[in-house]
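== Protein entry: sequence and backbone fold ==
=== Local backbone shapes as whole numbers ===
==== Amino acids and backbone structure tokens ====
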Amino acid sequence: MEQMKQKVIPNQSTEQRAVRLPGFCDVHVHLREPGFSYKETIRTGSQAAARGGYTAVCTMPNLNPVPDCLEHLKVQQDIIDADAVIHVYPYAAITVKEEGKELADMEALADHVIAFSDDGHGVQSDEMMEEAMKRAKKLNKLIVAHCEDNRLLKGGYIHDGRYAKEHGHRGICSESEWGQIARDLELAEKTGCGYHVCHISTKESVEVIRQAKARGVDVTCETAPHYLLLCEDDLQEDGWWKMNPPLRSKEDHDALIEGIKDGTIDVIATDHAPHSEEEKSRGLEKSAFGIVGIETAFPLLYTYLVKTGVITMERLMELLVYKPRERFNIPLGEEDYSVWDLEAETVIDPKDFLSKGKATPFAGWKVNGICRKTVMNGITVYEEGK
């Protein structure tokens, strides 16, 4: 990892206070194409990523068709080749149609995808997940898991905590997440498969992963900016606050902060999940799960974690740049970078987003940091105002 690091240094070709940062890497985004281009496209999503300082993203497979065979993957890859403005690496599904009934054609897909995931769905069968891990191990590919035990969901849509009880909402219990993580960690230890956990949100998830790492299990994990900056105490009766997993308790939030400080959490990924305005306007119960975040991630994290002294800038770069690239074997070119004015203050306004998705709980937040330019392979892929 040391060899791939770029120094965070002033960029002499711009105004004196501009800072050049290495190209960020997001291993968990939803670019929605093929199948759901009314929510986002490869072009709009990759443009939004470039504006956020990202030069590489990994796009999840909950698409139509689901990339569970080479024929279906080609539909997506052709769009990426034609329209992406940054590096876009597709996932393949673990199971056919992400239905958990039959494994995808992992052997045929392995050389063409970044990893395997059924994101949006937990793999419910222990036997299915174990077999997937065995195959992934042979193929030298990661299993990247959205962990959710369907038996424990009970129609919930926000955290099963104080806010749900006080406002009459159905809750999602924490065990639905950490219980399946614990199962998968046992299987990863048994099979030796490289295992990465998506968007952890609970204190128990942090602890079981911490313990597994201490045992030598080949596991990494991610959380998202909203879990680090918000909790159920911030919830409002609006679909813009609905995501999966949900915002948990203050105790969960604090455990996640400790996890990024002590290295238990390896990666911050946005889980950028755009939907149409109509799909996000139905309130907490009936709106679609998911918020956008790739254009706001760095300014939010810099303002509320780095400037406040929670973590250092160097640690933030590990979480956004080096650890995700190291784990997923994604190269960082010398000419992959973004230029930021870290002193500039702005207010997050979804109307300004390049993403088709506008739903964010951070609307109206003041942040420091404006991306002036993003460069990939020496080519400018985003420039402010153009």
Remarks:
- Residues 1-14 have pLDDT under 50 and may be disordered.
- The longest helix spans residues 175-191.
- The radius of gyration is 19 Å.
- The longest strand covers residues 337-347.
